[in-house]
Write a structure and sequence with these properties.
Layout lengths: L4 H10 L3 H6 L2 H21 L2 H25 L25
């Protein structure tokens, strides 16, 4: 089933991890959600700008991941691994016993 990348990013903007749940990345969704909740609690406790910046960073990473994962799911073929120019094995060095 095709996933909408913009919806995945929007869900992650609302609550980090929800975009991952939408695209089926359950493990990362739980991780982002827990990080978001912990940093939200920590920010409420002491209102540190560093914690706010970290929370915004986690949200941004969650949005980017969800968007890219949804785009990848919509392609017909899986991503290819880099191929060597030559499929032959490189020459092995000779072992010499003196």
């Amino acid at each position: 089933m095709a996933k909408k990348p913009w919806l995945a990013a929007l869900l992650s903007l609302l609550v980090a991890g929800f975009g991952q749940f939408y695209v089926g990345a359950w493990g990362l969704g739980v991780l982002f959600l827990v990080l978001d909740l912990l940093m939200g609690y920590a920010y409420q406790s002491n209102e540190s700008p560093v914690i706010l910046a970290l929370n915004l960073f986690v949200t941004a990473v969650s949005m980017i991941h969800a968007y890219n994962r949804a785009k990848m799911m919509n392609t017909d073929k899986p991503p290819e691994k880099e191929k060597m120019v030559d499929d032959r094995q490189p020459p092995q060095p000779e072992l010499r016993v003196f």
